[in-house]
Write a sequence for this structure.
């Protein structure tokens, strides 16, 4: 918990177990300010004192009577609150003049009585934008990881780092944080150690591992050394327009990197392997979508009787690095304009913690060789998202912050789908996790396709003209993925 005035007068919204736990911790540490009151809607609590702190309510009435000073802070400690309730509380606090509003995020372990001050943070727009996340009993759904060695690739990324946070509660013996960028791995490694110091989760041994999926020899070596029993493969180049500009890099990393990891996992005896996939694989028009479609196939075709290799596919996550929410935030904070690609553009959205919880759940209940898709709810119009974010920051759309349409960029669709026209879905019996039923393998001749892509990604002295040949790359892919677009101005190199 950072940026606190030691003289802060803190109002905790929610006098339940989580709020009480946080209040005790603030009092014990004595450096974050003083809890002056709980605000709650429960008639049985209003008018009582808990830990000698008064409980005031109902929230709607009391908030309007409070006279805020710059040193006043509100901390929302209702982990199971619906998005509608959070939005209502946030708007009431803003109207009352609170500028410091923090939240205890509704991650599942808090519902199981594990609230910690370290978990609180500044409220984000995405806390109010998405639908109410499904509640998963995290400790129960992570039983399959107890005492296991678990490897996360791309552990410094948005999904990878959230998986790591939630895995602290899983009782894993070792948590391998694998990544290419030393800074992002340093940050999640450091964060997890602080969380452990503050009593969050169980005592897994955390091991940062710097490496490159594209280095096949290293991957074969390191997986044998680590002996990871479970792998969550989150690492990928993901930025659609950037991959359109660097198509060979996308295939080399997302396809051959995945192949190296899968082969190394097979040789090392990994028992469960979960690939994080994307709705961009559905009838893909972009190189990124095509690369992940092939990655899905590599994982599904590696499944066997003594192991479970599976894929979990979902749409966008709110607030991930390089995504639309941080972009909009930066545009709003500099006074606009906010740019949307098309007035009718829409995407499926889910919060990062919910996506990670469902991935972990699917990893335990899933069967090998299966493609799962998360229930993303209804798609959200990008223009609506822009308007809601502008209001979150206290401005009026169009009047104070303009919204400008810039047109779809290369590789972008107007709308996304979560499964293909040839696919259908069925429920699994677990909330928000569905199974995709496919008509056989989409890519029948996977080994042949990989062979034809190799000389484009890796220098073959017999065919130097193919090395890094972008046009040949797209032509090769289009033979098996007919929806892929080849721009008329695509250069050869």
């Amino acid at each position: 918990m950072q940026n606190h005035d030691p003289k802060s007068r803190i109002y905790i919204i929610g006098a339940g177990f989580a709020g009480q736990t946080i209040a005790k911790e603030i009092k014990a540490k004595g450096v974050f300010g003083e809890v002056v009151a709980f605000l709650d809607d429960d008639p049985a609590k209003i008018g009582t004192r808990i830990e000698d702190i008064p409980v005031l309510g109902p929230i709607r009435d009391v908030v309007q009577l409070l006279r805020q000073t710059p040193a006043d802070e509100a901390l929302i400690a209702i982990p199971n609150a619906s998005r509608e309730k959070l939005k209502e509380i946030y708007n009431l606090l803003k109207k009352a003049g609170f500028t410091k509003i923090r939240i205890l995020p509704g991650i599942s372990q808090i519902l199981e009585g594990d609230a910690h001050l370290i978990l609180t943070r500044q409220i984000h727009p995405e806390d109010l934008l998405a639908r109410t996340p499904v509640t998963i009993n995290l400790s129960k759904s992570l039983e399959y990881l107890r005492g296991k060695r678990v490897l996360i690739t791309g552990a410094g990324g948005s999904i990878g780092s959230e998986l790591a946070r939630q895995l602290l509660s899983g009782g894993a013996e070792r948590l391998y944080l694998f990544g290419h960028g030393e800074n992002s791995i340093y940050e999640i490694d450091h964060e997890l150690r602080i969380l452990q110091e503050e009593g969050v989760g169980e005592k897994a041994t955390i091991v940062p591992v710097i490496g490159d999926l594209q280095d096949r020899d290293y991957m074969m070596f390191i997986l044998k050394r680590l002996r990871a029993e479970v792998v969550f493969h989150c690492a990928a180049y993901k930025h659609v327009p950037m991959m359109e500009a660097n198509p060979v890099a996308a295939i080399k990393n997302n396809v051959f990197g995945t192949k190296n990891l899968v082969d190394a996992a097979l040789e090392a005896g990994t028992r469960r392997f979960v690939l994080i996939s994307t709705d961009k694989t559905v009838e893909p028009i972009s190189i990124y979508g095509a690369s992940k479609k092939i990655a899905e196939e590599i994982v599904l075709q590696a499944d066997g009787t003594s192991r479970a290799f599976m894929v979990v596919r979902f749409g966008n996550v709110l607030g991930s690095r390089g995504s639309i929410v941080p972009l909009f935030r930066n545009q709003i904070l500099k006074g606009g304009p906010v740019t949307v690609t098309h007035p009718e553009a829409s995407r499926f959205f889910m919060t990062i913690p919910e996506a990670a919880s469902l991935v972990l759940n699917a990893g335990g209940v899933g069967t090998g060789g299966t493609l799962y898709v998360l229930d993303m709810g209804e798609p959200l119009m990008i223009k609506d998202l822009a308007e809601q974010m502008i209001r979150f920051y206290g401005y009026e759309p169009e009047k104070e912050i303009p919204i400008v349409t810039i047109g779809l960029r290369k590789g972008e669709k107007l709308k996304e789908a979560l499964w293909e026209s040839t696919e259908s879905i069925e429920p699994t019996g677990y909330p928000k996790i569905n199974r995709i039923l496919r008509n056989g393998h989409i890519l029948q001749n996977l080994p042949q396709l990989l062979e034809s892509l190799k000389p484009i990604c890796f220098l073959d002295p017999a065919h130097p003209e193919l090395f890094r040949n972008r046009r040949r790359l797209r032509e090769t892919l289009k033979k098996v993925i007919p929806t892929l677009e080849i721009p008329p101005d695509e250069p050869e190199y």
